[in-house]
Design brief:
909 residues, 5-stranded antiparallel β-sheet, 20% strand
């Protein structure tokens, strides 16, 4: 809004011809014109309207016709005449200001206006005052306002200055908006050490103090559990405010008694607002902000919004500081936990070395004593104990290395080493193990023409870990080790023709304890730190290790180390040779890859025990215990065991739990799902001790459960009970027309099983139960919900096979239905567009008439284009069953129906 002020001296001359007459002078002047027309001007210094000079009439007519805020003062008494625009600016002073002295009605601001007004009237030069702060009392209080004003002289009929003419625009909102925006920006940019709440709060208060016009004073109170405590103040002595209060309601609103002043005109501060810091939905409350209100501005919606934004900046900054502090404490806790773990491994490893030394030393001495040799059977048992003791020693040493590296205590002690000859010898130590595994080991290590400085024991671990990793994951083909000297480094590569590594897993190969899920391997033993240790040891030499791999084509590990410089004087002793640990590693791998030698069955043995374990020494030990009593067959995993059971049905299965390919629980499920093998007693061996582990095994349907380590006599007794129980079940089945169905097993919540519940899960403790034979063929129906990922397909296949086998379908039909259903599920995973739920639902119903399988996704239908699979999946499914596809906006349902086919006749049938 704008304002114009004009002051004109009275002109005693009569009105000039053509000047506005009193009748039409105020016409068209709006509300203010009507008020001026009704005013008794004869009582004012300018006199009756009829006596006004023409210049005054023209000036009045001009300002009334304008919509811009304008004012005219006339004569030495500064008599005011103005229009509607100006009336709005002076608020409650209108209409009382009409015809009165400007110096009286604007007394509070005359000190600022007098200079520019008098300058314009005396010098006849117009002024220009942008953003002029003026004190107005137009709303009942001393208001902070800003105007852009121009003052100019007003001339009478005689050409002399008779008054003042002014035009003004109010820019209060513009000035306040810029000032408040600048403060909010400064608050958002307040710098302090991250995570230091006190420093952040001090910075915020300091920044807030830069704008005392909008926030005369402020105080921050933070939650203290039992109330609020004062944490910071600005613009106010801290002692004037309470140090703590039970709740925000106890904080002051009216603050006139504090004696504080503020605002542009430094008037007493009377009011304050209490603003919450945080505490919105799902947000933790930090505290409250007490903000003083300027005595020169009304607390209108714009002002309150500004204060809310100030509180928001405090909330954001303090919340971020607390989040950083929480993260810092979490990081410190993790670091402390890591240090404690490192110290624990270090201490435990040291403590383990003493008993290991006292175990391995005497065993080695006895085996090395040729003066009084032991019987061969005893020597074999001691050799087994020595080999596994050395394996434990290697694990302890690896843990010690990791602990030392984490603690920063490990250092490579480099000495000049014939690295080519040393590497070739290390490969030779493992040659027998590779050849026993059916692999060809090629070694190409020509002499290096420059001295190479490495830590021999660390280099040994690098080479052995890479070679044993290659043997572990290679089943066909060979391993090639090469060593080359380049310009400024030595290059070692170990390439194999093994199973390879998926591209997504390559960045994680050297992480500790990382295993590629679902990968095939010769065994699952180890700590999971072999390749991680390789990276750490190579790094201590200033080198790098990398891997290139393709699934099904093998992997190539490359180690690059500099020639280095010696950390110790040249050693004149013998060159580096493989240590006893290296030979122990080779012996363990030879035992792992050597086919089991089964002893002849004892005379009169009437039962067969199938031992399933991926550890060669464990199979050897179990065979030695059981072979004098029963016939013993061995398998290295559950997959081999299922194939062996199909050829020759054992009387008892003794299986480990943790095995590659098919583990112990999956083996148990498959045996129980097949009517032909359902009654075979199964005993589980596991390293997981404790009642909860036993409950898990019995709940899965195992007949007996034995935790490692175990006593030989206890194992033999449990196997004998299982053999007798299995023999009794067969005799009962032969005597009766039909065997009783399996007794349903109760479910017991993990961690809540007591002795009675455990006995209820043990088959030998369950009461016998019989059920009448069904009069009609049962209908098997199951529903599953799998995650929409390719990894779920194997689980679906196992679940379908279990139901289809239980339904008594022919094996060929089972195979066809599995192929069709898994193809449908694969399509649901790969082709569902924008699924609303990331799952695939599968339902199977098998009856005497046939089988119906439905596969449903939750994505949108995508039309096939020529670049896609050209319908191979649908053709494949239709070749084995009747297939219907029903697409819809909420998902696609594939239904596979197949009538039951009779089993194919056997040979001669």
């Amino acid at each position: 809004m704008s304002l114009v002020e004009v002051c004109v001296a009275p002109d005693p001359t009569s009105a000039a011809p053509g000047a506005p007459t009193p009748a039409d002078l105020f016409a068209g002047g709006g509300e203010t014109g009507r008020l001026m027309a009704g005013l008794d001007w004869s009582a004012t210094p300018v006199g009756p309207v009829e006596e006004w000079p023409a210049s005054l009439r023209y000036a009045v007519r001009t300002i009334l016709a304008s919509r811009f805020p304008m004012i005219l003062t006339w004569g030495p008494g500064y008599t005011q005449l103005y229009n509607d625009g100006y009336a709005t600016l002076i608020g409650a002073k209108h209409p009382g200001a009409l015809g009165r002295d400007l110096r009286v009605t604007q007394a509070e601001g005359w000190g600022v206006l007098r200079g520019p007004v008098q300058h314009a009237m005396t010098t006849r030069e117009a002024s220009w005052l942008p953003r002029l702060p003026l004190l107005l009392e137009r709303a009942g209080y001393r208001e902070e306002t800003y105007f852009t004003v121009s003052h100019a002289p007003a001339f009478g009929d005689d050409g002399l200055v008779a008054g003042m003419h002014a035009v003004c625009t109010e820019v209060t909102n513009e000035v306040l908006g810029e000032r408040r925006q600048r403060l909010l920006h400064d608050l958002s940019c307040t710098e302090a050490e991250r995570g230091d709440e006190e420093a952040v709060l001090a910075g915020l208060c300091s920044t807030l103090g830069s704008d005392p016009l909008d926030v005369p004073f402020a105080a921050v109170y933070l939650d203290a559990g039992d109330g609020l405590r004062r944490a910071g103040t600005v613009g106010c002595p801290a002692e004037l405010l309470p140090g703590s209060v039970p709740d925000p309601a106890a904080l002051p609103g009216p603050v006139a008694g504090l004696g504080l002043v503020g605002g542009f005109w430094q008037d007493p501060v009377r009011d304050a607002v209490v603003l919450p810091l945080g505490g919105a939905a799902g947000e933790e409350r930090i505290g409250v902000l007490v903000a003083g209100v300027s005595p020169n501005r009304a607390l209108d919606p714009e002002y309150r919004t500004f204060l809310d934004l100030v509180a928001g900046q405090f909330t954001s900054a303090l919340g971020t500081a607390r989040a950083f502090e929480t993260e810092r404490r979490r990081a410190e806790s993790l670091a402390e936990l890591d240090r404690a773990k490192t110290a624990f491994f270090s201490d435990v490893s040291h403590e383990l070395r003493t008993p290991l030394t006292l175990l391995l030393g005497p065993i080695s001495d006895v085996l090395a004593d040729t003066s009084d040799p032991l019987p061969q059977a005893a020597r074999d048992q001691l050799a087994l104990a020595l080999r596994n003791g050395q394996r434990l020693q290697r694990l302890v040493n690896d843990l010690m290395d990791v602990a030392s590296i984490e603690a920063g205590r490990a250092e490579a002690v480099r000495v000049e080493t014939d690295v080519a000859a040393f590497t070739a010898e290390l490969a030779g130590v493992l040659r027998a193990a590779a050849e026993r595994a059916g692999l060809q080991l090629s070694v190409d290590c020509p002499p290096v023409d420059r001295p190479v400085h490495v830590d021999p024991r660390m280099w040994e671990k690098v080479v052995l870990n890479l070679l044993t990793n290659a043997v572990k994951y290679t089943f066909v083909g060979g391993i090639r080790l090469t060593l080359r000297g380049e310009a400024d480094q030595v290059l070692l590569t170990v390439a194999d023709t093994g199973i390879g590594i998926p591209a997504a897993e390559l960045p994680l190969v050297f992480d500790r304890f990382h295993r590629v899920q679902g990968s095939l391997a010769r065994n699952r033993e180890g700590t999971g730190i072999g390749l991680a240790l390789v990276r750490e040891l190579v790094g201590l030499h200033g080198g790098t290790v990398s891997v290139e791999s393709e699934p099904g084509a093998g992997s190539t590990f490359t180690v690059v180390v500099p020639y280095g410089s010696p950390d110790m004087p040249a050693d004149t002793g013998p060159s580096a040779t493989p240590s006893e640990v290296a030979h122990g590693t080779a012996a363990s791998w030879i035992a792992d890859v050597t086919p089991d030698e089964l002893p002849d069955a004892p005379a009169g043995a009437a039962a067969t025990v199938l031992v399933v374990d991926d550890n060669a020494d464990m199979r050897t030990y179990l065979t030695r215990l059981l072979a004098p009593i029963w016939r013993v067959h061995t398998c290295t995993n559950g997959e081999e065991a299922l194939a062996a059971v199909a050829v020759h049905r054992p009387d008892v299965v003794l299986t480990d739990v943790m095995m590659p390919r098919v583990d112990g629980f999956e083996l148990l499920r498959r045996l129980r799902a097949d009517p032909a093998t359902r009654a075979i007693p199964v005993i589980m061996l596991t390293a997981r001790a404790g009642q909860e582990a036993a409950v898990e095994g019995f709940a899965a349907g195992v007949d007996d459960y034995l935790a490692k380590p175990f006593q030989a006599a206890e194992l033999i007794a449990r196997v004998r009970v299982a053999v007798e129980r299995g023999s009794g079940a067969r005799d009962g089945a032969a005597a009766g027309p039909a065997a009783a169905p399996p007794v349903p097993m109760p479910t017991v919540p993990a961690g809540r099983a007591g002795p009675a519940e455990v006995r209820a899960l043990v088959p030998a403790s369950r009461p016998s139960a019989t059920a009448p034979p069904p009069t009609t063929a049962p209908v098997l129906r199951e529903h599953w919900r799998f995650p929409a990922t390719a990894r779920a397909i194997p689980g679906l296949r196992r679940a379908l096979r279990r139901v289809l086998t239980a339904a008594g379908l022919d094996e060929d039909q089972v195979y066809d239905l599995l192929l069709a259903a898994c193809e449908a599920a694969t399509n649901a995973v790969e082709h569902a567009q924008h699924p609303t739920r990331p799952v695939v639902e599968v339902t199977i119903e098998a009856s005497v008439d046939g089988v119906e399988i439905t596969v449903r996704d939750h994505g949108q239908w995508r039309e096939r284009v020529p670049s896609m699979d050209r319908g191979r999946g649908a053709t494949l499914m239709s070749a084995f069953a009747d297939v219907t596809v029903v697409p819809g906006p909420e998902g696609t349902t594939v239904t596979i129906r197949s009538p039951r086919t009779p089993p194919r006749p056997g040979p001669g049938g």
